[in-house]
Amino acid sequence: MGTRSDILEFKSATLYALRIVLYTSDTPALLQTLDDRIREAGAFYENEPVILDAQGLDQAPDWKALVAAMRKHHLHPIGVQTDPALQTSALKAGLPPLDASASRSAGPAGAPRDLPAPPPAADDPAPASQESPLALSASQTLVIRHPLRSGQRIYAKGGDLIVMAQVSQGAEVIADGHIHVYGPLRGKAMAGAQGRTDAMILTTQLDPELLAIAGVYRVVETQLPKTLHNQAARITLDGDTLRIQAL
Description:
Layout: E1 18-21, H1 27-41, E2 49-54, H2 63-72, E3 76-82, H3 84-92, E4 104-106, E5 141-144, E6 153-156, E7 160-163, E8 172-175, E9 179-185, E10 188-191, E11 201-206, E12 210-213, E13 216-219, E14 233-238, E15 241-246
Parallel strand pairs: 1-2, 1-4, 2-3, 5-7, 6-8, 7-9, 8-10, 9-11, 10-12
Antiparallel strand pairs: 11-14, 12-13, 14-15
């Protein structure tokens, strides 16, 4: 009996995965840092496939504990890149060896760099707990004319996002292209969500909780300098660094 391609077929695929670089085998420290980073980023990485990069380690952490913690945060570990001496213990935890050379990385806690996971979108001013899906073609721009309240999330898939009102604290605006906010930007703004490094974030009043472009993000924990705080600004990506410029 021959094979039937109309039932099942194997094909090659290119997968963009979040690469989390481990700099220590101290499992409690890794778990605490993971909790801190996810708390800062909210749903930024939700449902993202993950490759653990442990090439710099000569001792294995508790792989099973790491996998369990990541799944708790809705991350999905799919493999590990590590020294051959550590591969056996990783395999026992369900982490096969993978080549993460083409994936995007997350640096140490002081200089985070990660791949955002685009969440479901909400186009209407529905209650904060409600979201509705929205898909855009690559040439389209999504325009939002109403303020975004805490808990609301807008994702412009495949295009730019223009918000003609306030983005409140606790709200999230995400776009595969550029983000324009013609009003106070007080929530989280994530441009270039699928890795577009030339994406920009522009706003007429900058006071954000988090800024991100192509996975490189900055949590704004303290007030920005007076030359930037509540001023018109442009955010761009320069290598692995976010540049914030007054307009």
